[in-house]
From TrEMBL:
It comes from Helicobacter baculiformis. It catalyses: malonyl-[ACP] + acetyl-CoA + H(+) = 3-oxobutanoyl-[ACP] + CO2 + CoA. It is an enzyme of class 2 (transferase). Its EC number is 2.3.1.180. The active site is at residues 114, 254, 284. The keyword Cytoplasm applies. The gene is fabH. Catalyzes the condensation reaction of fatty acid synthesis by the addition to an acyl acceptor of two carbons from malonyl-ACP. Catalyzes the first condensation reaction which initiates fatty acid synthesis and may therefore play a role in governing the total rate of fatty acid production. Possesses both acetoacetyl-ACP synthase and acetyl transacylase activities. Its substrate specificity determines the biosynthesis of branched-chain and/or straight-chain of fatty acids. Belongs to the thiolase-like superfamily. FabH family. This is Beta-ketoacyl-[acyl-carrier-protein] synthase III. Residues 255-259 are annotated as: ACP-binding. Homodimer. It is found in: Cytoplasm.
Amino acid sequence: MPYAALKSVASYVPKTCIENSAFEPLLDTSDEWIQKRTGIQTRYFATDEEQSSDLGVKAAQIAIERAGITKEDIDLVLVGTLSPDYMCMPSTACVLSAKLGLQNVPSMDILAACSGFIYLLATAKAFIESGMYAHVLIVGAERCSSILDFEDRSTCVLFGDGAGACVVARTENIKESILDVKIASNGQHANYLYTPRTLKNSSFVHAHNTSTQALQMKGNEVFKLAIKTLLKDVEDILQSNALEPKDITYFIPHQANLRIIQAVQNQLSFTPEQVVLTVQKYGNTSAASIPMAMSDIYEQGKLKKGDLMLLDAFGGGLTWGSALVYYGGGQA
């Protein structure tokens, strides 16, 4: 039986680092206020010339090289993003594929906000294990700065730009496979975290709707529901695979807020050595945050073949998901 294996991980971070102090002249905020509530110290913003696809391409090129394959081996491209290059079409995956030099390869976006990478894993796993494809490129790519209201201190200080990419490939070894993925959603809470769309009225007689298209969030509601949902999600996937927290090499949650991560960590008794934290460096990079965190420990030489990772995310939609993943690639 074929399994799906995570054969490589890579990331790309834009060059411009934005410290918390940069917001102080613009907003009623401070470095102390931001760190106390979020744990974030810095984040990186793309230039005006860089789109989500550009960030994703740079991460993808590294991931392909680290997987020991060529771009011609890729037979499916999946991109998760809440900040696409275009509003509806073409998909960021199509743009990214073209920039990689791929032709006649199916490409599509998956819109699951901050849970996007878990949804990408689930989709790649299904395609690989069905026998349809052998090498799937999955990319979380975000230019979150393009959808922020920089007069809203409750949101604009939280997010950063970046990309993470992985190659998922066929394997016969379950001990280097994506062991399990669980994803879910509840659209009844869609208004907790969303980006409005400004619509033109169907009749030229009516005025154009000028409402904002920047990201909107009910922070307190998201915070409470995220902790509750993530705890249950982690407990469920561990129980269904007869595992305990001590069996996990690395717990890599979506990097949204340090207080959320610590609440889940403490209630599930993960040790500090098990928990991967990058929110302090990159802020919330949505669909890119988990692969960027994986790439960090890979580049530090900590991630070894056979290590069992527990991934967990919660995002707009509302969406959430978790995954148990053996690392099946080489070492840095």
